[in-house]
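Standup, Tuesday
Yesterday: got the pipeline producing structure tokens again.
Today: sanity-check two examples.
Blockers: none.

Example 1:
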Amino acid sequence: MKVKCILCEKLETIDDDSIVAKRLRNRPIHTYMCDECHDRITRKTNERLRLKKITDEDENSL
């Protein structure tokens, strides 16, 4: 199955029998995101949460 990442628009081919392909076929609202974009978003989200936690701890110590 050919898919396109919603963020970078990179075209990829995934196995027709994979769970991701099944979800995309059965639920059109689901979108595909390549591994690189998924990892980048995960990393940035974790960094943002870590910074928020540090900021919250600093405010609580005042």
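Example 2:
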Amino acid sequence: MSTKYKTSNPEGIYFLSMATVEWVDVFTRREYCEIVVASLRFCIERKGLILHAWVIMPNHLHLIASAAENKELTSILRDFKKFTATQLLTAIQENPAESRKRWMQWIFQSNGARNSQNRHHQFWQQSNHPQELDSNYLMSQKLDYLHQNPVKTGLVEEPAHWRYSSATDYAGGKGLLSLVFLE
């Protein structure tokens, strides 16, 4: 059995990537990003998620995270993805300003129909591609990659200017979520 994409070390810190199916640009609207932020906050406060860094991009998000003692990161992420998928699908359906509604619903529904693990819709791609950050070099590399992502894609000029990121925290400001900084 492959261990390449598994959170096999319960005490490990992991770089995680979660993408929408077919890389649909859902997170171009603030209200959808706020659902993700609220869910991350809930996971931090109630489920034992330890968040070290994060960024929401238009069609994916990256986290550097670990789990509190006696908690499983895999379970936290499973619950996070299930909850946010339901909330986001509902928000898309109920958003009168969503001009891409029918197109997005068709993509989520057709992906769900092809996946035996879903009943109706699939919002997130299956894997989180966890990579354990077991050295200072890897931590620094992934932290830089995560924070530079909005800059490299042309969304902002400086990492700290991206609202949906921990770059503000690492630059000395106060961001949207509570973090445990990487050392």
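Quick observation on example 2: Residues 73-94 form the longest helix (22 residues). The beta strands are 14-19, 49-56, 60-67, 131-132.
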